[in-house]
Amino acid sequence: MNEKQVHKFVNRYLEATDCSIIEKSPAHFTVKLSPSADRELTNRPYYWSFVDRVGTEPETMTFLFVTDKERYDALPSTPELTPSGQAEAGNQTSAVDAALTRSFGFINNNLTAPARIPREDLYFGSRKLEQLFGAAKTKGSFVYLFQEPDKRGSSPFSSTPYTAWLGVNIRIEFACDRKREEIHSFGVSLVTGHCVDRFHDRLVATKLTPRLPANIHVTKTGISFNKALTIVEQTLERKLKSYDYNWAVDATNRLKHEMDRINAYYEPLLEHATEENKPAVTEQYEQRQAEIRWQYEPRVTASAINCGIFHLEGID
């Protein structure tokens, strides 16, 4: 990721988590975190356990997130006060302190000093950016969205039917001593049970919102989530059965060849090993066999990346 991509991601994360952006430029954000973002990013479990226990209003942290270090460091800093300006500012501060002292007694100036805002340089590979990725992955693993209707063609006196779809993105891994990955996106209508592939392409071309739009109604679902997941699994299984698995046959042959080499090496060692050394040689032999099986044995694994419920226009 380059600086622009990091900046765009951070901006989307801050907006999605309702953080208060105090100041921003193409190179940085000064932001006061929302309670949810503070819980994810600041590692303050004792503070948040106290807030939850007492029920008090939380005080979240403020950060300076720098997404382009060179560009931000090149920005002009705040100009220093001239001697006359310093004297004027000092006179104003003294007058304020005198007024507060007359009203409330002694005032410690150190208490009114601005707090230092911690700075985090965000670049690909940085600890804080990895933390943002993890928080986004955790919170974004499931979404609940509605298609935004076309306002130009809608009538305020009509109601448009929407169908609920279960969308699932699945990673397929074909692994042996080599590895290949595929990502499949399936959508299942929770009304009819119809399953479509490349569902993500349809979502990309659709404007979505987390709020229920006006003048729409959601049709009654007839398919449970478990049934929809079963439909996805069956569709994926049929798709995988149509693949060419000559790579798995070749991997099995390579596995057999490597196992023969290991057997040829360790069997004479075991035959001539002493009673004292035999357990150690046997353990090493079994460990090496397990490593070779893990490296060469062909396998196909499927794992869900994320999913969501999408209410889309029409009845499918």
Overview of the molecule:
The chain has about 325 residues and is α/β, with parallel strands linked by helices. It is extended and about 85 Å long. Helices cover about 45% and strands about 25% of the residues. It has 3 domains: about 5-135, no CATH class; about 140-245 and about 300-315, no CATH class; about 245-295. It has helices spanning about 5-15, 35-40, 45-55, 70-75, 85-105, 125-140, 200-205, 225-240, 245-270, 280-295; strands spanning about 20-25, 30, 60-65, 120, 140-145, 160-175, 180-190, 195, 210, 215-220, 300-315. The strands form 2 sheets. Strands 5, 6, 7, 8, 9, 10 and 11 form a 7-stranded mixed sheet that branches. A 4-stranded mixed sheet has the order 1-2-3-4, with helices on one face. It is built from 10 helices and 11 strands. The longest helix is centred in the last third of the chain and has 27 residues, at about 245-270. The chain starts with a helix and ends with a strand.
